[in-house]
Write the structure tokens for this entry.
Amino acid sequence: MSNLITLGEFIIKNQQDFPYAKGELTRLFNAITLASKVMNSQINKAGLVDDLMGKVGTQNVQGEEQKKLDVYANKIFINALKARNEVCGIASEEEEETIIFENEVGKNGKYIVLIDPIDGSSNIEVNVSIGTVFAIYRRISPVGTTAVLADFLQKGRHQVAAGYVIFGSSTMLVFTTGNGVNGFTLDPSIGVFYLSHPNMTIPKIGNIYSVNEGNYAYFSDKMKAYINYCKDIDATTNRPYTGRYIGSMIADLHRNFLKGGIYLYPDSAKAPNGKLRLLYECNPMAFLIEQAGGKATDGQQAILDKAPMEIHERTPFYAGSKEMVSELENKLS
Ligand code: AHG
Ligand code: MN
Ligand code: MN
């Protein structure tokens, strides 16, 4: 282990990726890694510790049932970010309204964070991988004032950093500051993240497709045709593809990062804009995917070029290996 670079060392070495002021990136990521370690220790105990399993009995703004771990993770990440004095506002899947820090320290924060504290909530109780995903922007409004809605509604293209934590067979933090993608694995015995996946790149083409095919009957004719294309036999294009669907977007996309493949969450008769949220699910993953040489689209345009209208808006989402996503776009056009 001694020759491995720790996350702390890596961030200090790459401070120039955050050209605004020394130490800001370090403090922001310290907050996120600390919260991730707390989450890791709690998730590993889920099932033993009663208070973290099961439902709270409330729904979030999207009408989804909140799990105890959703609410707990939301609190942990918000508190950790608040304590670091760099952030003027946070938007979370679990909070109907944006959280704007109105004290002097908050007004002087330069960054906005948008977060899905637990992605894949339905997998908590069945011991399947879940994750956390976040996007970081510089605010548009002047430093020294309270943050405004426009600070949150920036195009994904303007992200200064994004990342995800996957709580899987090991716990990893994968992030970008616009200069490639790097993955760090947690050694839980000493609580240190080590650089284990430097300069991650998504294979240009793969042979895995990943979609909730149970929704097939609700898909458009073009989407149905694409799903059937994935299952057709054609050795020259690696088909039929292999089907894999975990039901935690982060875990499904993490697999694509390493093995190549395409992830689909289409619009449908049941969900006219798809299910996934643009600001704190699709944008950060799209930034990471583009940085790794992949592609992310809503079928018409790059996810990162979409102009957001509201905090919790949804979008169809297709992402992964560049050639596979381009192929899908052709078939949908
Ligand atoms: P969340 O747990 O944050 O609400 O997100 C769940 C999302 C995503 O992780 C996953 O890919 C998708 O919902 C699964 O949805 P279906 O069960 O409709 O396939
Ligand atoms: Mn999610
Ligand atoms: Mn969530």
User: Anything to note?
Assistant: Residues 64, 93, 116, 119-121, 212, 247-249, 275 surround AHG (ligand 1) (CB under 6 Å). The chain has two domains: 7-197, 208-332. The longest helix spans residues 24-43.
